[in-house]
Write a structure and sequence with these properties.
Elements (H helix, E strand, L loop, with lengths): L2 E8 L4 H10 L4 E6 L19 E8 L4 H12 L5 E6 L4 H8 L3 E3 L3 E5 L10 E5 L11 H11 L7 E5 L5 H8 L4 E5 L3 H13 L7 E4 L12 E5 L2 H12 L7 E8 L3 H8 L3 E9 L2 E8 L6
Helix pairs in contact: 1-2, 4-5
Length: 297
Amino acid sequence: MSWLQIRLDANPDSASALEDALLDCGAASVTLEDNADQPLFEPPIGHTPIWQHTRVTGMFQADTDMVTVLAQLNALVGELPKHRIEILEDRDWIREWMDSYQPLQCGKQLWICPSWREPVDPTAVNILLDPGLAFGTGTHPTTWLCLAWLDSQPLTGKTVVDYGCGSGILGIAALLLGAEKLIAVDTDPQALQATSENATRNNIDPDKLACYLPEEVPPGLHGDVLLANILAGPLMELAPTLAGCLDPGAPICLSGILDSQGDTIKQCYQRWFVGLASEQREEWLRISGKRNSEPAK
């Protein structure tokens, strides 16, 4: 069965109204997506982010009278923004999406594999992952940068803290690379659930994993290695907390940082860390270093 779709250009003020109007007009589904290649960062809890330039797409059955739909939309929201109507041939969208998600190599020995595909190299360290609600499939530059860094670290027997764990991909990679314990922290309960489920999918011993919301973290949280793939603002706010989790000489890996924010993050962290160095992929940075013996004055 074919479908008709109408695509409308919107902004944060009009997107929700257009979404509601399309559903009122009988749309089978409505999607909102970026219309200007704008990064959309993690919002505060309870907030729904909208791109400044949003494309709103309504899907209708092929026999729908789109002239009537346009008239109804005009009546509901007023003059319509720039829009176009297209015929969409029926396709197996789930299969196409699954086919597009390919195994990804991160470093020399680490691969991220969708759970429905055979590993490219069965002898490598393969993380089986199902993309879901929580951030972190390995395809984003920040995640890839952190995974490549982990691939180069001596992790055997170490306790790793993953602050802002998302899907758990970084911490699970650390465990598969030899770490003894993962402490996963995230503000989103769904992220902690995804981390636990992905750990089970990768046959991780549940005794090696502890998941916490920030307010539930036990006093004296401590690790031998710390990962924080979040955003520049939270990284700066959390700097004293993250530094307090590590002994002198322990490594830290930070990402979620735009290249324009790198110097600011380094200036913030140089009080507690030495050897701060950055690695770039596209417009994103990874910054790594080691805990000072004592904080700089």
